[in-house]
Amino acid sequence: MPHTSIRPPRVGGSGTADAKRRARDRGRRARRPPRRPGRPHADLFFAIAAILAFGGRSESIRAFRGDLSDERLRAIELRAVAFAGRLTILAVVIGMIVEIARGHSGAPFTWLGAIGGASYLDASVYGMRR
Fold it and tell me: What does the pLDDT look like over 56-66, one tens digit per residue?
């Protein structure tokens, strides 16, 4: 049995106009072109790529492209990477706690944490031996 909603009665009109409007709207929905879910993401990707490619003389954009390599920009990049890493670790730990609190195993988050910890240890050993 299809689900029907109860509507309040319309004053001064008949139900046929409402039925005609619904039928017309249904026809419009059927004629729409199919949605392409990846299209907004591709547009954003190409916009960022164009900004980076044609950024010109902006110091920030040239730093993102890798054109500039002085000590100040290396320090900024190091702080940005450390901040992003800390936020990622925090998100993994919170996700694991939430999953365990819900009664799940938390396995995806424990694996992400293990991969992050192992890569940190590998990078630390590599940095010390270098």
Answer: 777 888 777 77
